Known about the structure:
6 helices, mainly alpha
Amino acid sequence: MKPLYKALLALYVLFLLWLILFKTSIDFSSVLLHYQSRSLNLIPFAGYSSGNAHEMIDNFIVFIPLGLLLSANLKRISFWRKFAFILGLSVAAELAQFVLAIGRTDTTDMVTNTLGGLFGLALYAAAKKYVNNERLDCCIAVVLTILLIFFLWLRFFVLRVRY
Length: 163
């Protein structure tokens, strides 16, 4: 089962990068060549409104599974190293958006992404006190696999992409 968990973690990281950088578009070259929008916000929660609250909640939620998957895969790695990985991935994705000029680089996104991953780490730590590690890891893998398949089904058969 460990190779399955590692594969699921790698797929989820790729999914997050696809979601953050390309907003689930499969036409990467079109996004890179034609979207060309660069914006930078260095003040967290600046311009907060109920309109962007939905995006902040989405950012938080989409990073929870990363914390769960890191905990399931990297049991010998400290909590803080896993947290640093989540923070680093969030910062790297936002910097890539800026460098490639394919979106809005926003410290609010980095904060909400990181808090979501932190929540996933904490949720795993709390759950393992009550559930056997193997059963917990298996449950996480099954639920996240179903969610990824469902999201991909929605993306390709129901929802339209913004680009």
